[in-house]
Amino acid sequence: MFSAVIEAQPRGFPSTSHAVPKKSTPSNNGIAPRDEDYIQLVKGPHDVQIQDNGSVALDSRLSMIERAQKDISIESYIFKADQSGCLILNTLIKKARQMRAKGKKFPIRIMLDKQLFGPDIDSFFVHEMAKEGIELRYYNVTHAINMGKVTHRNHKKTFMIDSGSDNSELILGGRNIGDEYFDLHKSANFTDIDVHIEGAAVSKVQKIYDRFWSSAQVTSGEDRPDKPRLTYSGPPHHGGGFAQSQSQRAAWERNVKEVTNCLADSPHKQALRTAVAKKAKTMAKKNPVVRTNSVLVASDTPDWKAAGRTLGDEMYAQIAAAKKSVVIENPYFIPQDSENDALKTKIGQGVKMELVVNSRKATPEFGITSIALYRAIGIAKAGGEVHLYKGSGAQDRIPGVAYDDDVRWATHSKTMVVDGKTAYVGSGNFDPRSINRLNSEIGLIFPDSPELSKSLTSSIRRRISESTQIDGEGRGRDGTKVDTANYVNILQFIKVGGMQLFEDQL
Q: Is residue 2 classed as helix, strand or coil in its secondary structure?
């Protein structure tokens, strides 16, 4: 559909482990030099749409599966076997059967982070989906006791169809796969932002996906264990009998049944698909499709020990280039000292800085939100605008979902707009895990894209309208403390304990 030029910038940019903006001077057009395997500027027309609503995001993924003709590649940090996850898997299976009936080779690949305690999509899913020709692989399969390795995770989220064709499409952003990311959770949901994009940058992201898929850090999913055999271990009054093996067999059979139900079609899945599509049709109108002329694709590598530039370097390079304004929405705003000082320096230079983070009332993630609020208050003290978000989801609720009376929405967006013309959307947060390579991240930076930046800013302003602005003392406009109790009592823990904990894992 689109032709484009992929431009590799000169290498040799000075590297810094904390991506300090003052050392990340961008080159021409505001884009810093990069490692061309994982960080490239793709020139040419791209059609891009901001997706900031759960129904739109889920419907878009399902529709992409339904219209795919060549292949499907999915990557997620979290993939839950709940109603949204099962609907996606069921749709994938139907697509695989449809293409198989036509005699077409149709690869479907899913790459997930293994996670510390294992993902929902486990070996029982591997077994059933292999029957349909769907392959699962996992990033960083290691034991929890290996602390030097287990802390490294693949935090990227990509969703692609029809790679290498004129009809290739990509969704990339902050959303995992799970009900709370699609406005379907009854008590706690996330407002998140993805971009749907068509154009040559999709091929670049696909190549990065392929590098991860074939890397040493990614391994094929293991098949499910065999059905436990009933074994006799002595008289019951001596603690023997069949009890233990019967329990193991019952658990195995229960797992098989749960996976089968998840993957099977059902009236509930059909009704959910209809409700989501109807809601999405209305909500998608809020964000128009915008044409951009270039995209910087920036990804970390699968090998966390590898040298080179990172997504974090590119994010902070954009801030370093700011002349007028920086707008950031991020749930985990935890810049390290050098980064924090550089942000405050930009404010001192007259750059208007606006920040949207979660209120502690918006999310059960008390600890991490408290650390983010501590850093956010520092930005407010320096002269930035800080907004604490707690959404009601009034416009996002899907008819038919039985929400609790006190259901809440928290932001999970990882976005930034610089000078009203450069937009960033990705998986990377402003925290040590993302910036210092504990996570592998990916993001898209759209330079010289005022229309897309306007669309993204409008989306962020919708969250600001449901937020409370605080000053450097944590007080709202009426002078009362806003959601910041106990800060002063735990400052040293946060700075010396909590922050150091992140750095010690490097």
A: coil
